[in-house]
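[recover] target loaded
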């Protein structure tokens, strides 16, 4: 699915002060979910969550901004041990929150969204519907980022193997 976030002025107004910062743009350097980078993932989570919050009368500003900042950490979680204080699922949201606070003021709602976005892999449940939105959209995007390219790759291999044009 192609997202049209670049042309959504309402969304861009909410994240304009964040999205072009060096801190956020540097996420492009980190692979995320095998076939995407962390910047693409963060924007996808942010924009899709914004759309759902808008549809369900949620706080679109907090949802868009926290969705963009939910994975604001600067290490490869698959190869680097970041902390002896817990699993990556527990630690990285707290690191993201710390980094987000260096960029902007973070509301209680935004804090809950960022820290609780790994619910399911962690124990503490979100307090707000916006936190649940980002949590579920994050999981959806992760699956899409892995399975869509994998499916396309397998489809291409199958078509070559069987000599088929349209699989």
């Amino acid at each position: 699915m192609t997202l049209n976030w670049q042309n959504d002025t309402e969304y861009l107004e909410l994240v304009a002060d964040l999205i072009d910062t060096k801190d956020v743009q540097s996420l492009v350097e980190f692979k995320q979910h095998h076939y995407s980078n962390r910047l693409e993932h963060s924007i996808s989570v942010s924009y899709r969550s914004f759309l759902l919050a808008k549809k369900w009368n949620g706080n679109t500003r907090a949802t868009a901004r926290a969705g963009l900042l939910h994975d604001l950490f600067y290490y490869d979680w698959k190869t680097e041990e970041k902390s002896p204080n817990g699993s990556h699922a527990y630690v990285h949201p707290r690191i993201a929150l710390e980094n987000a606070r260096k960029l902007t003021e973070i509301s209680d709602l935004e804090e809950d969204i960022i820290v609780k976005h790994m619910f399911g892999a962690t124990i503490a449940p979100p307090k707000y519907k916006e936190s649940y939105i980002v949590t579920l959209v994050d999981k959806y995007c992760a699956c899409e980022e892995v399975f869509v390219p994998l499916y396309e790759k397998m489809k291409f291999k199958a078509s070559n193997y069987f000599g088929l044009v349209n699989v």
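[recover] notes: The longest strand covers residues 31-32.
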